[in-house]
Write a structure and sequence with these properties.
Blueprint: H1 11-16, H2 18-21, H3 25-41, E1 44-45, H4 48-54, H5 59-69, E2 74-75, E3 81-83, H6 85-116, H7 121-142, H8 146-154, H9 189-199, H10 212-222, H11 230-242, H12 258-261, H13 264-271, H14 286-302
Antiparallel strand pairs: 1-3, 2-3
Length: 303
């Protein structure tokens, strides 16, 4: 499903953004161009040469521009991509709304088509004959038989009213047993956000919570019964996120936001321990980390 050829531009939010305020005018234009690419494609490539081409910049020009634009993007859900969190939220919300409208249109079209269908000639005859038979049966039911008439006339006293136990059972709406599964408890968004702030103060704070972020957290809460407790989320933030140098900004400039953490693909990777440190020291350089880990192992073996 393709997005709209236009997206909403919140100019007040844009020009009040601290990252945008420090940009040069030319870099702001490059930033808007990349936002447009993300709206169309869903992400931008994590490749400096491709980004330079997208912004029509020379390599030297782009190296300077990227220093001020980089804080506005974070690793995307797909490997080798980058995404602006606000643009992703707006785009996801738009596509969800578009899909819901399309589904409603399909359902409405089916209902109208069904209503317009005319019964076949055989069906019409069956209906007509059935209506006549029903009417004749009702007319006969109104006429009392001779035996019942004589019985009622010979009775000198009125028949007693039936007791409640003798009355026929009647259908009571809602009296049947509801076998549907119990509804999961509502997701306590604010309490989970408070846990996130308390355990991970080094990560970006949640300023607003709506759109894709709120919907994703709601889904993560509902799709597994074990996650429907604050204790589970406390353990998740401590053992899956806090122990990750990559997610907490110890390896590079990236820091995972709550919006990023609860995205379906990111959440699965974090939950599977993909970003958890394995005990080796982290310096921000993969080569240095490997050398440091090898040195530590060597000292342990010699000791």
């Amino acid at each position: 499903m393709k997005p709209s050829p236009a997206f909403l531009f919140y100019y007040q939010d844009f020009f009040s953004d601290p990252d945008v305020v420090v940009m040069e005018k030319a870099h702001q234009a490059d930033y808007v161009r990349l936002l447009s690419v993300q709206w169309q494609k869903g992400s931008i490539p994590d490749d400096q040469r491709k980004l330079a081409k997208l912004t029509q910049s020379t390599p030297d020009e782009w190296a300077v521009a990227w220093e001020s634009i980089a804080p506005c993007f974070e690793p995307g859900e797909e490997e080798g991509t980058l995404q602006n969190a606000r643009m992703k939220s707006d785009r996801d919300a738009y596509l969800d709304m578009k899909a819901a409208r399309a589904e409603a249109g399909r359902r409405g079209g089916k209902s109208q088509a069904k209503a317009k269908q005319k019964p076949s000639k055989g069906e019409a005859n069956v209906k007509q004959n059935g209506s006549k038979s029903q009417a004749n049966g009702q007319a006969k039911a109104k006429l009392p038989s001779s035996s019942s008439l004589s019985s009622s006339l010979s009775s000198s006293s009125p028949s007693p009213l039936p007791s409640p136990s003798e009355e026929e059972d009647t259908f009571q709406p809602g009296a049947e047993t509801d076998n549907s599964p119990p509804k999961p408890p509502d997701c306590p968004h604010q309490k989970i956000i408070d846990l996130y702030h308390e355990i991970l103060p080094e990560l970006p704070r949640v300023q607003t919570w709506r759109g894709a972020g709120r919907a994703n957290l709601q889904t993560r809460w509902r799709e597994d019964k074990s996650r429907q407790s604050l204790a589970w989320w406390e353990d998740f933030f401590i053992n899956r996120v806090k122990n990750s140098g990559f997610l907490t900004g110890q390896k590079n400039d990236f820091r995972a936001s709550l919006n990023w953490l609860v995205g379906p693909k990111n959440f699965e990777k974090v939950l599977n321990g993909q970003y958890v440190d394995r005990g080796a020291p982290t310096t921000g350089s993969a080569r240095t980390d490997r050398n440091a880990a090898a040195c530590k192992q060597f000292m342990e073996d010699e000791g």
